Amino acid sequence: MLPETNSALVSGVRNWTLWFVASRPYAGRMSLLLLIDGYNVLAPSAPPRSPDPMWLHRERAQLLERLATHLPGSVRQRTQVVFDAANPPRDRPDRFVYQDIDVQFAVNYPEADDLLEEIIRGHSSPKQLAVVSSDHRVQTAASRRSAEAFDSQSWLDSLLDGNLRLSPRANVIDRDAGEGRGDHGDDDLKLKAEDVNDWMDEFGF
């Protein structure tokens, strides 16, 4: 009975911790500098000819890992990535923090664009905000509030080349890409299968 009790206790603590992190991702944080349309950035990565059920999860995990690696800490703490959530996982948080990056699934929104528009509309200093999306609707919402809009693929390519593109009016000291958790080559960005599985298990995907 003791192992089962310990297992239940650990599970309860883990679920509470995930809820707490997910429900307070911006506690003590400064205003948003970087808003990323997650699936729009992933769009150029076409699915394999015979995709396994987990290919999209790996794509999401790799994007977040690249952002964590190439964004400086001062920017990661003011970055949000939004993903569509047509079929969100049950009994799991739809918002959590990964390596200081706020990640949110657009649960209860028709699509991610609606949540992105809401975030842009509610930003207190939109001229400091950079929005990464090639979606015309999202770019229009950014332009309407004088935020800086970047096409997804060119922005990501620049980031991986060491050039972090933010709003020229952003109040941030460190604009150098590659100053995240450490510079890694492309081989290091290919997540090991066990790392992906641990990440997906942690967040219930």
From TrEMBL:
InterPro entries: YacP-like. It holds the Pfam family NYN_YacP. This is YacP-like NYN domain protein. It comes from Rubripirellula amarantea.
